[in-house]
Design a protein that fits this description.
Elements lengths: L11 E2 L2 E3 L2 E3 L5 E5 L6 E6 L3 H18 L4 H17 L1 H12 L3 H18 L2 H4 L4 E6 L2 E9 L2 E5 L7 H12 L3 E4 L7 H12 L7 E3 L4 H9 L3 E7 L2 H13 L3 E5 L4 E5 L5 H13 L9 E7 L3 H13 L19 H16 L3 E4 L18 E4 L6 H4 L6 E7 L2 H9 L3 E2 L1 E5 L3 H10 L4 E4 L15 E2 L2 E3 L5 H7 L1 E9 L12
Parallel strand pairs: 1-5, 8-9, 8-11, 9-10, 11-12, 13-14, 13-19, 14-17, 16-17, 19-20
Antiparallel strand pairs: 2-3, 4-5, 6-7, 7-23, 12-22, 15-16, 18-21
Length: 501
């Protein structure tokens, strides 16, 4: 498939995959636009109820055989899959940039993080090992074993078309489950290519299936009694709906929601490092990521120099199409996202924040006329303002001023979200206190984006997560398996047994 973000002219029709067979859906279609040029590039189907049911049925049938494949053989599929992902990495990155708009470097980096999850899945033989206790009573032994659940469903978001899906299906399948993936209807092509390569790696037919659509398709998956577990990443209102609906239907759920991530900047920190980290965290992927920094809490004397340096650095970010090597920040995903972000900028002005950098109507260095919003900065933001409280999901940075660390921690903890928070400081005591007191699942000390590696859990708190077991790490192993406890006694026939009281 052609993948240039600015030159593709052939309209690509996304197929569905049922039982390992790729075919066209009979459902209605929607045309998707290239975010950089606003030109049509893809048609995505909205699957029928019959197609969704068939995908679940194919997964259920495949599960009965796949679960019996030795775990070492299952892991071998992912060793081969990793090599194919590396071989086709540039192709996949260009597909991601084409349909999402992020820069090629960002697409390459996010794919790399997804490949980390595949590498973690290759460790399934070790990760699935249980516990053993011999002679818990005379001649009695107990062992625990981990067994797969059955059909699992993945519902990833639009902002990471490659990485987040690979948080889901590799570990689920390596654990012996079968899978149905419902990619975001805004960015379906990357998942299609990922699953094509998974079958090329030797996955048996039906173990991974792909359907497309929106709420109707999701609700059908949540209601299907054959589905045993659901993994979701998206906004908090939808995450709550997924959690409540799937839970009522007896399914295991991990639903990762929205975020309002804070960075606290203390006097005496390395200001240059802080500015560079905040800039990358706020404007990387055009702010469209759940670990994006959207609020900076500037403490005391750190505020004025920080604002000046941020303003200067933001003005130097080059906006344009993601596949142009000169581009520092690409477009947002579609026209609706652009409109929503611009409405937040207007709301910030109306609420009295000082607009330091206005990203509306940015100049693009390459002349493209897509869905662009430039780097935006507000100063003197109050914690109660909408731009400080609500998830904007765009390149808008709000700066709140605090007198000391205690007030800064209170600002962070007042948020309804608890995904990530960071501090930049030169004092070990401040970093230690912040890490202990802040109410967030992922904490950074002199780290702008505290995203864990794939062998640690992605651990949001509060309104950023609904469920018990997080994505990635050992949480993922537990989420995609059930524990069975086996207690056994093997009497010795030749031995006399005397019963005493």
């Amino acid at each position: 498939m052609a993948t240039s973000a600015t030159t593709e002219t052939k309209l690509y029709d996304c197929p569905i995959c049922i039982g390992g067979e790729w075919r066209a859906s009979t459902g209605r279609r929607e045309t998707l636009l290239n975010p950089a040029t606003a030109q049509p590039v893809t048609t995505v189907p909205y699957c029928t109820a019959e197609e969704v049911s068939a995908a679940v049925g194919a997964a259920q049938a495949a599960f009965e055989t796949w679960r019996q494949v030795p775990v070492v053989e299952r892991s071998h599929v992912f060793f081969r899959y990793r090599e194919l992902l590396l071989k086709h990495s540039e192709e996949i990155a260009r597909i991601t940039t084409l349909e999402h708009g992020k820069t090629l470097d960002e697409s390459r980096a996010s794919l790399g993080r997804g490949i980390e999850a595949v590498e973690f899945a290759t460790s399934a033989p070790t990760l699935l090992m249980g516990d053993t206790a011999g002679d818990i009573s005379r001649g009695v032994d107990t062992v625990t074993v981990r067994q797969p659940l059955g059909v699992c469903v993945g519902i990833p978001p639009f902002n990471f078309p490659a990485m987040v899906p690979m948080w889901m299906f590799p570990m689920a399948i390596a654990c012996g489950n079968a899978f149905v993936m419902k990619p975001s209807e805004r960015v379906p092509r990357t998942v299609v290519r990922l699953v094509e390569l998974l079958y090329e790696a030797g996955l048996p037919k039906g173990v991974c299936n792909v359907v497309h659509g929106a709420k109707e398709v999701v609700d059908a998956l949540l209601a299907d009694p054959r589905v045993k577990a659901v993994s979701f990443v998206g906004s908090s209102p939808v995450a709550r709906h997924i959690y409540e609906t799937a839970g009522k239907n007896g399914k295991r759920v991990q639903a990762m929601g929205g975020a309002k991530n804070h960075v606290v900047v203390m006097p005496g920190c390395d200001l240059g490092a802080a500015v560079k980290a905040v800039l990358g965290a706020a404007y990387g992927c055009t702010g469209q990521r759940c670990l994006a920094t959207s609020v900076v809490v500037a403490v005391g004397a750190a505020a004025d120099p920080l604002i000046e340096e941020l303003k200067k650095a933001a003005s130097q970010i080059s906006v344009g199409a993601g596949d142009d090597p000169k581009t520092g920040m690409g477009p947002v995903v579609n026209a609706a996202a652009k409109k929503r972000i611009e409405q937040y900028i207007q709301a910030g002005e109306q609420e009295g924040a000082r607009l330091v950098a206005d990203g509306r109507e940015p100049h693009t260095h390459d002349g493209t006329e897509g869905f662009y919003v430039g780097p935006t900065i507000f100063d003197h933001v109050r914690p109660g303002m909408r731009i400080a409280r609500e998830e904007i999901f765009g390149p808008v940075l709000s700066v709140i001023r605090a007198k000391d660390l205690d007030e800064a921690v209170s600002v962070v903890n007042s948020s309804e979200f608890g995904n990530a928070a960071s501090i930049f400081t030169g004092a070990g005591a401040e970093g230690r206190e912040f890490a202990a007191r802040v109410q967030a699942g992922m904490v950074g000390v002199n780290v702008g984006v505290p995203a864990p590696s794939a062998f640690f859990p992605f651990a949001g708190w509060k309104g950023s997560f609904f469920g018990d077991l997080h994505a990635l790490g050992r949480d993922a192993v537990q989420f995609y398996t059930e524990t069975k406890v086996v207690t056994s006694r093997w009497p010795t026939p030749a031995r006399e047994h005397k019963i005493t009281f």
